Fold:
Amino acid sequence: MSYLLLLLATLGWSFVGVLVQTAGTMTDSAVISFCRFFFGVLFLGIYLFLRDGKVQLRFGLKWIWIGAMGKAINYIFENLALNMGYSYGNILVQPVQTVVLLIAAGLLFKEKISRRGWVAAAFCVAGVIVVGWNGTPLDELAKGSGLTTLLFTLAGIGAAVHVLSQRMLLKTMDNGNMNLSVFLVSTVLVALPVPVQSHGITGPVTAWACAALVLLGVITGLSFFWFAEAIKRVPFAIVAIVGNCSVLFSILWAYLFFRDPITVYVIGGTLIFVIGLLVLNVPIPLRKRKRLPRPPLPAAPNEKAAR
Structure:
């Protein structure tokens, strides 16, 4: 069951780009951000009520609000960039998040970053640069072609802030009610600018677009819960490998559903930052120590005398 939850979370994250672009045929990014949180809170709340018979919301902790702001920033910029660019573009969020978390570990928590961490960060940054560049001439990149990369970078920073809040909140709250509290505050935050910023329905209302909005909510509400439950029982090496495969699935779905152009730069950059993610996350088995021959036992007193 734990492996199934891990697979569901990974596949859910990989479909985000395709679902956002599908929903974008009907409405704009502001409404999509609101629906991702709204339906996420709805489905997660129903699940927790069926499981525990109650839900426990807490709004008095500062990290609830910090995490909510981070996740709201994550979704706002991610949805905006996905509507502007290709449906696989959000693969950049994860490596940016990883680098920001490494820096935060050193600055905020005074944790020493190992050589392995710096190597992983270098691979992640290099991969993001290659994917963001995508072979575009530098003059076009300077004129605005790199805007989506900037938006995904901001989305990755927001995602990292959310992860930091989870780290702090899990000391006092369970995973399900923590996410429910954070996502409910995020729903309010992204709803505030909708009346002014959003254009409402911008395209034909279709069953596919409506289903995409609902599925995005399911992924928001349940995928983080599924992942947290899975890592309690699944070996961490498998979690790291399967979890990072979501970026490869995202590229596959982008090509199959939208025929988005997958260039050699996208493939190469993705492989570079996936290597960085694996270097950081996959544990290295300790080498077995070589057994040294035991020193000879000292001779007994009578044996010394006989000699």
